[in-house]
Write a structure and sequence with these properties.
The protein is an all-alpha fold. 57% of the residues lie in helices and 2% in strands. It is built from 17 helices and three strands. A three-stranded antiparallel β-sheet has the order 1-2-3. A hairpin with a 2-residue loop joins strand 2 (31-32) and strand 3 (35-36). The chain starts with a helix and ends in a 25-residue tail after the last helix. Bound molecules: coenzyme A.
């Protein structure tokens, strides 16, 4: 392997220290502040997990109750933001809406002092679902939904706003688990973007806007939306596998497969698959699950590639009745917790992140004045 290939994408290089999360390259597997992701997904709520990420410890009952009330209070949209959301074209990508709204909120409720950082993190966690659902419902139907619901959980709040009625227990848990699994993942591209921005001592909102921009890409958060397209126009597992083979023949990547860090399996995949399967038993397009398993099996056998979190998350969201264009914004609603944790950690031991580059261009050239070129 030549030097260029070795450093491509900084794969395998450590770019700093963190006490927040371990991923697959550590013997521990995926843990948030030392807690195994499987246990968190099974026994904790997203509110507990987000508290853990923002404050470094799991909450007591009293702390959790106080935190939930603050989250509920933070759901409301300032009037200027609400009116601005109504002006954004219905054809916009919802990730652009999230980025724009975050930026605007930064002018309405600016971070004047880093001492406000936790408060801003809680506000963004509380308000992102409102931004996403308000804009989506208004742009699709002209309806102005009420975002200040009294639902106790973020999962319920999101599903309630989108469907106009509260979800059942299974739907709520499936959404909750998905938010837990998406919450944090060490130095992934969007989190690293946030840390780079924070390392310049920029404000919280700028760091989050940068992270949203990185998450939008197909190779990162955009994969969950893109992977649902595999199922469109297919009715059988055979057709779905044929579609995958066709894409591979055209040198296309299969969205929802492979990972930059994990090499054998994504520990989050089995968790979300479990909920996608349960939901599929009651869903209109339940047969998508069988097609997904056929694709997963074929990719493993023929390409030695495994399904990552995005593959079954796409189905999970689809079975919950969520439009595909909101899959990646939902990722924002969850990952704001990890981004916030990393921005705060970066600030705590800050050193400007400024790597060097290996120059591969022309060594030296003589300047020719414009009139002689
Ligand atoms: C995530 C991703 C960018 C990681 O890429 P990476 O670090 O280069 O992955 P690897 O080095 O393990 O790739 C090994 C080989 O498998 C191929 N590969 C990896 N993921 C693939 C996919 N989803 N579809 C087809 N081929 C894939 C690579 O092209 C590479 O082939 P090569 O050796 O012939 O060049 C890549 O897997 C990908 O694009 N996946 C689809 C997007 C996605 O699901 N993103 C969400 C990640 S959570």
């Amino acid at each position: 392997m030549d030097e260029q290939k070795k450093t491509a994408g900084l794969r395998g290089f450590s770019a700093g220290e963190t006490a927040i999360c371990t991923v697959g390259n550590q013997a521990a597997g995926l843990r948030y502040y030392g807690y195994d992701i499987g246990c968190l997904a099974q026994y904790a709520s997203f509110e507990e997990v987000s508290y853990l990420l923002l404050y470094g410890e799991l909450p007591t009952t009293a702390q959790l109750n106080g935190y939930i009330s603050r989250l509920k209070q933070g759901r409301g949209l300032p009037e200027t933001l609400r009116l601005a959301l109504e002006q954004i074209p219905a054809t916009s990508h919802p990730m652009d809406v999230m980025r724009t709204a975050c930026s605007l909120l930064g002018t309405l409720e600016p971070e004047l002092d880093f001492a406000q950082q936790q408060q801003i993190a809680v506000r963004l966690l509380a308000i992102f679902p409102s931004i996403m659902c308000y804009w989506y419902c208004f742009s699709q139907t002209g309806k102005r939904i009420d975002c200040a619901s009294q639902d106790d959980t973020i999962a319920c709040h999101i599903l309630h706003m989108l469907a106009g009625k509260p979800p059942n227990a299974m739907q709520q848990k499936a959404m909750d688990v998905s938010l837990i699994l998406y919450a944090e993942h060490e130095f992934n591209a969007s989190t690293f973007t946030a840390r780079i921005c924070a390392s310049t001592l920029s404000d919280f909102y700028s760091s989050v806007c940068g992270a949203i921009g990185s998450l939008r890409g197909l190779l990162h958060g955009g994969a969950n939306e893109a992977s649902l397209q595999l199922f469109a126009c297919c009715d059988t597992p055979e057709q779905a596998v044929a579609r995958v083979m066709e894409k591979l023949q055209q040198q296309e990547k299969i969205m929802g497969f492979g990972h930059a860090v994990y090499k054998n399996a994504d520990p989050r995949s089995a968790q979300i698959k479990h909920w996608a399967k349960l939901l599929s038993e009651q869903a209109a397009n339940g047969h998508y699950f069988v097609m997904a398993e056929a694709i997963e099996q074929w990719m493993q056998q023929h390409k030695n590639l495994f399904a990552n979190l995005d593959f079954y998350s796409a189905l999970n969201y689809h079975f919950l009745g969520i439009p595909a264009c909101l899959f990646t914004p939902l990722f924002v609603c969850s990952r704001i917790t990890g981004w916030s944790a990393h921005i705060m950690e970066q600030r705590q031991h800050n050193v400007l992140i400024r790597p060097a580059a290996d120059y591969i261009g022309i060594a030296q050239r003589e300047f020719i004045p414009i009139t002689q070129r």
